[in-house]
Amino acid sequence: MDGHNLTNQPRIDAAEILDGIREWVEIETPSTDGAAVDGLSHLIERQFADLDAAVTRVPGRDGFGDHLLFEAPWGDPGDKGILVVCHMDTVWQHGTLDRRPVKREGDKVFGPGIYDMKGGAYLAYYAYRHLIRQGRRTRLPVRFLFVSDEEVGSGTSRDLIEAEAARAKYALVMEPGRNQGSLVNCVVTARKAVGRFVVTAHGVSSHAGVNHDHGRNAMRELARQILVLEDLTDYARGITVNVGVVSAGNPGFANVVPDKATAEVDFRCPDAASAAEIAAKVHALTPIGPDIRLEITGGINRPAYERDAGVAMLYGQAATIARDLGFELPEVSTGGGSDGNFTAAKGVPTLDGLGVCGAGAHAAHEHLLYSSLEPRTELLLRLMESLA
Ligand SMILES: [Zn+2]
Fold first, then answer.
1. Is the predicted pLDDT of residue 235 greater than 90, yes or no?
2. What pLDDT score was predicted for residue 2?
């Protein structure tokens, strides 16, 4: 702790916050490069350690970076507390920063990963720093999780997120604030279940000219299965099934009847029941053509985050704080998954989209709104302090 800051009554300062965010953004952290993500995680570890937080570094695996857990020095480790969920990785490969350095234009500050979600992750750190510097505490224990692989599905961090959810009374997720239709700067109170399938049709190859009739064209079979899959989409029920990638055949060899064709499928469902229903239907697909074998793998990888009574209560509390601070806090549900899906599915009241406002996640125009830095930090701080 800095003594002089205690006596000077530190303020939440947008310029100071932006300086901190910039430092995090300027360390490139594509999910697929664990060593690069560790470059940022070591900085974050030092920053939290300076604030008396207990640090646990969970080694990464499968080429992904380490995950970090920080615990404030009050409360019993066994007591249920507030879990603040952040990710350090971005979808941006090395070199993006050279092409698109951090740049401010009016209220917009552009930069790779600045909105999703280094801005929000930094707000979590800054809110905690502000709390500590003022000698204040939250009523509940507070723990911060920084994972390294959210953008690729949190395969190596899911166990950790769920273990921390087990000792959480509330989960606050620092993904960015959302805009939807006429609603701007919203928090997220529901997310669809997200799943993946790989559907492979196996047929029989043959010479297209000599004995076409001996062949069993896997691509033909897959084409028919794609229509079955896509027809599972039901907008009225909020269900989408999207065949996004297809591979088959040997490029340049149209004279071969292909014996293998593969489709990669993404599906989204609003609740656990509809997700289970779609997964069962996909796994029950049967061959349409003769002598075809279907191989189907995959399933739900992020369970649904449903807006239950606990979520509604948590949202209500946040909206009241926002009103006291002088702004509205609309809520939206979204088809995009986050680590909030894991905490919510464990029955922990979860509020997501608490990070910075802006737009352009995963897009070249990604930016945060400078004007959101102070209010969003204040909102998080007061929410953490009010939860009991
Ligand atoms: Zn994100």
1. yes
2. 47
Distance, CA of 73 to CA of 385 (rounded, Å): 15
Q: How many domains does the chain have?
A: 2
Length of the chain: 388
Q: Does 254 share its domain with 269?
A: yes
Q: What is the 260 CA–ligand 1 centroid distance (Å)? A: 35
Together in a domain, 199 and 290: yes
Domain containing 169: what range?
3-191+305-386
CATH value at residue 197: 3.30.70.360
Cα of 90 vs centre of ligand 1, distance in Å, is 7
Alpha-carbon distance of 355 to 377, in angstroms, equals 8
pLDDT-based confidence at residue 10 (cuts at 50, 70, 90): confident
Q: E strands within the chain? A: 54-58, 67-71, 81-87, 103-105, 108-110, 142-147, 168-173, 178-180, 183-191, 193-202, 206-207, 240-248, 256-257, 260-269, 293-302, 331-334, 350-351, 358-359, 367-369
| Three-state DSSP class for residue 212 | helix
Mean of pLDDT values over 153-161: 96
Report the separation in Å between the CA atom of 201 and the middle of ligand 1, taken as the mean of its atom positions: 34
The label of the residue with tokens 């995963």 reads 362
190-228: b (≥16 Cβ within 10 Å) or e: bbbbbbbbebbbbbebbeeeeeeeebbbbbbbbbebbee
pLDDT digits (tens, 9 = 90+) for 70-117: 999 999 999 999 999 999 999 999 999 999 999 999 999 999 999 999
The predicted model scores a pTM of 0.90
Residue 216 Cα to ligand 1 midpoint, Å, equals: 43
Domain end (from 302, 331, 363): 302
What tokens does 120 get?
A: 């929000």
Say how many C-beta atoms besides its own lie within 10 A of residue 367's C-beta: 23
pLDDT over 60 (residue 127): yes
Ligand 1 ion: nearby residues, β-carbon < 5 Å: 116-117, 175
Of 273, 302, 331, which one is at a domain's C-terminal end?
302
Say whether both 134 and 22 belong to one domain.
Answer: yes
